[in-house]
Amino acid sequence: MTGQGWAVDAWRDFGRQCVPTLKCSFRGPDSGSVAILSSDTRTLHQPERTVFFALRGPWHDGHDHLLEAHNRGVRRFVVGKSIDANAPWAADSDVLVADDVLLVMQGMARAQRNRFDGPVLAITGSNGKTTVKEWVVALLPESVGVHRSPMSHNSQLGVPLSVWSLDNHHDLSFIEAGISQPGEMARLAQCIHPTEGVLTHLGEAHLGNFKNPAHLAEEKCTLFEGCSRVFMPEELRDASSPHIGGTVVTWAFRDDPASHQAALLVELQADRMRLEWQGRTVDVAWPFASDAAIRNACTAALVALHHGGRLEELPQRIAQLNELTGRLSTVHRPRGGMLIQDDCNHDFGSLEVAMKALVNLGDGCRRVAVVGDVPQSGLDALARAKRMASLASLFAVDNLWLWVPSWTEDACLAVEQGLGGSPCAVQCFQCLDDLERHALELGEAHVLVKSASHERLAPVMQALAPVRHVTTLTLNASALVDNLRRLKRHVDAQGVIAVIKGLGYGTDPVVLGRLLEAQGVDWLAVAYADEGVTLREAGIRARILVLNPDPATFDTMHDHSLEPQLVSPKHVSMAVQWANSRGVSEWPVHLKLDTGMHRLGLAPDEDAIVEELLEGSPLVLASVMTHLAA
User: Fold this and answer.
1) Mean pLDDT across 389-406
2) Does residue 45 carry a pLDDT above 90?
3) pLDDT in tens, 488-503
4) So what's the pLDDT on residue 104?
5) Phi and psi for 230 in degrees, rounded to 5?
6) Cα(427)–Cα(441) distance, integer angstroms
7) Which of 280, 110, 83 is nearest to 189 (CA)?
8) Position 286 pLDDT exceeds 90
9) Which residues in 500-525 are b (16+ Cβ under 10 Å) and which e?
10) Closest alpha carbon to 497 in 517, 475, 477
């Protein structure tokens, strides 16, 4: 992630304070600046301004890529083991040797955060963090300069990368924080040092490594130590307030017995809700179908009203909210190339992430970025223009199309001047028809479209990747329930695993999951870990089986109480090694046997090998299964 940057002397002073002098070596360039923190050589774009952190994981070790980073131009390193000072990558570089490389990154982020005097709001909860964060920003006036975590970067690595980009031109900052292990939140709290907090939800989606729900609530509230106030739904007060020193500020439904304690009252009506705030009321038509979305919108409104949001503007702003996936999506363009979209609100942090995705498509195809203005950045139009140019140059975009109907000619010229010697071609559009015409005429190219949700660039999207036809699928929920009951009764089933992979076979996995969970199915089965995470984040508690688990996602699966299907001795061995390295115990796994289909599964002569691997291991065999051959 890119920040405003430190001078080289500031970076070296930090290094001397952070690690013992004998573990510092400063032989890199004395000029330049430090602006980018990275742990991945695949995403290096300005290596001369980058600090490379050699992080270790169960399946990777950053120390294996030090020479590659050096060859790419990096000259600042943080490593976790003793080095040969004359090694090719170290001889002309600044090197810090630390016991905990990630802690150094978090320390750099904390030092950057200490330069900021405005409010910093830390957001946590079992689910809803990204949605509430993005919706708060959407409910605030455009004049408020907002810094926030890009997308859902809320991990031990994602948080420092997010905090690093905070700067004094911002008015306030929203940082997400997520945990899966006891003790993790204290580290994030040290990094973020929040002045206020937001608690979205307390559930059991990440309960696996905690004693009970009360222990999980206590750990989450560690984030709020020292906060002047913490925003939350009133229903969370009893579970969280014993662990919070500041003022608890809540919203509540009017019929809640404790609603007298709430700052914002909500009265649900047939197709709208009435908000009461400081003696005034407004009626809001909600654009959501789910109860979780309504609750997230109420939390977002509560926070926004305390930070410059206007009650009279909420009806219009809430009507424009969209339920988020928090993920980039891609579709094929008929003329060649891909169209990349994302549904997060628009800021420079998420724009940087999206541009990385555009660059990573590679293959030599022309790359076009269609980007809207970022008025909530806290920068004036000229500064925003220069920042746009900097990102376009950094990621070597071929064409930058700016949708900036309110920009002056000076701002448009500032983009071209900011590109310097970059070959990027810039066009500023102030007429939507003109932008749509260019999109219609665009040939083969990878295209990124990134703008605020209210910009309504649907005609441009249609021009870039036309929808050829519309298919409507109607799901008969009552028939599904009836079929389930009949099948269970017909075969006298002792248990049922409901397979809803592939986005519920093209329907809605969350709707299907909730429906099937309510009918008492024993497991839900999905293809990949991210499908299971979606179900957990929607509040589904049933056991979830992952049919195609990539070992790289074992952390994610365990954090969300997902159970992998293992298909070979190597697969089992990798799961055992991972569990041992993490100190995990009693993780349920499922074995697939090959009984003649000859796709995936254990062959008969592999049974003994797997039995030996499982004996005394941290894994618990939950079931065996097979795919029957015809």
Assistant:
1) 90
2) no
3) 888 888 889 999 887 6
4) 96
5) -135, 125
6) 15
7) 110
8) no
9) bbeebeeeebbbbbbbbbeeebebbb
10) 517
DSSP assignment of 120-153: EEEEE-SS-HHHHHHHHHHHS-TTS-EEE-STT-
Q: Is the pLDDT of residue 326 over 80?
A: no
Residue 47 has pLDDT above 80, yes or no: yes
Mean pLDDT across the chain: 88
Contact 140, 146 (CB under 8 A): yes
Alpha-carbon distance 564 to 548, whole Å?
8
Residue in 153, 159, 243, 239 with CA at minimum distance from that of residue 193: 159
Antiparallel, parallel or unpaired: β 196-199 and 619-626: unpaired
Say how far apart CA 603 and CA 119 lie, in whole Å: 60
Alpha helices by DSSP H, listed for 147-244, are 158-164, 184-192, 213-221, 237-240
Cα end-to-end distance, the chain, whole Å? 52
Residue 334's alpha-carbon distances to 35, 289, 343, 361, in angstroms, are 39, 33, 22, 17
Backbone angles phi, psi at 250, to 5 degrees: -130, 165
pTM: 0.64
Cβ-based burial of 479 (10 A; exposed 0-12, middle 13-18, buried ≥19):
exposed
DSSP designation for 622: E
Q: Kindly report, residue by residue over 528-573, the tens digit of the pLDDT.
A: 898 899 899 888 889 999 998 988 889 999 999 999 999 999 999 9
pLDDT higher than threshold 70 for residue 506: no
Q: What angle do CA 526, 531, 536 make, to 5 degrees?
A: 105
* SS3 of 293-332: HHHHHHHHHHHHHCCCCCHHHHHHHHHCCCCCCCCEEEEE
**What pLDDT, on the 0 to 100 scale, is given for residue 471?**
63
The Cα–Cα gap between 359 and 338 comes to 12
DSSP state letter for 108: H
Three-state DSSP string of 398-445: CEEEEECCCCCHHHHHHHHHHCCCCCCEEEEECCHHHHHHHHHHCCCC
The answer to whether residue 469 scores a pLDDT higher than 70 is no
Distance from C-alpha of 82 to C-alpha of 54, rounded to nearest angstrom: 12
CA–CA separation, 453 and 77 (whole Å):
39
**Number of residues assigned to the chain:** 630
Backbone angles phi, psi at 184, to 5 degrees: -70, -35
Question: Taking the mean position of all CA atoms in its chain, how far away is CA 176?
Answer: 9
